[in-house]
Design goal:
This protein is of the alpha/beta class and 262 residues long. The chain has one domain: Metallo-beta-lactamase, Chain A (4-Layer Sandwich), CATH 3.60.15.10. Helix content is 25%, strand content 18%. It is built from eight helices and twelve strands. The strands form two sheets. A seven-stranded mixed beta sheet has the order 1-2-3-4-5-6-7, covered by helices on one side. Strands 8-9-10-11-12 form a five-stranded mixed beta sheet. Helix 6 packs antiparallel against helix 7. The longest helix has 13 residues. The radius of gyration is 17 Å and the shape is globular. The termini are far apart.
Length: 262
Amino acid sequence: MENAEAEQVLEDVAVYRTLIVNVVFIGKSGSKDWVLLDCGIGHYAKRIIEAANKRFGDQPPKAIVLTHGHFDHVGSAKKLADHWNVPIYIHPMEMDYVTGKRDYPVGNATVGGGLFSILSPFFPTDPVDLSKYIHPLSQDEPLAFLQDWRVIHTPGHTPGHISLFRDKDRTLLAGDAIITVKQESSMAVFIQHQHVHGPPAYFTHNWQEAEKSVKKLASLNPKVAVTGHGLPMEGELLAQQLSELALNFKELAIPKNRNKLH
């Protein structure tokens, strides 16, 4: 079993990887005011709690925020919310997917190439039911527990996907709107080859919106980016690759056979 300890990116941002996807701890080590962004895959609740305890003691988070409702981001959400008894927030357009009302489309094995694309039709798409804890995120009012962060609607990968951005140091928590590893390829995932990519192709069903979201994020000129998959990136390399992705999204990100998605 891997060491359940988050890797610090900034003084108040740390990342813990749950096999193939990241969860983010927002808050300084030892803080009583911290937030968990995303909940990883199922069966990781104990390890996420252990990593949280190492960073914050036994202090529960003020809330859990979900970038979207895919299985690899909500898998441990219910167990974590049960353990901490805290609210979970998600964009209103994702609510049906996390309250048992609506399924996501099945993964598309024909796009992106690589083992994870081939396996994607077998990934869970059934709606989870977090009704006991779930609340809609508002873009109009700053969240009391995330006052320095802006909620940015970044649809495409899912209808209600969101990212978080902090203007004072241009830190971006992007979820799957952009990622820093070619998620379709198991080899790239396991060696964590670092490069800015569009959202995972096999689960992205609106490429027009996904392109708009990438352009929106590029316009923020982030200095640091933490994404749902892959290692954190910063500085000139991030700026260069994100700009290139935004300018050439159709060529770099959209699968040639994307029409097979529907």
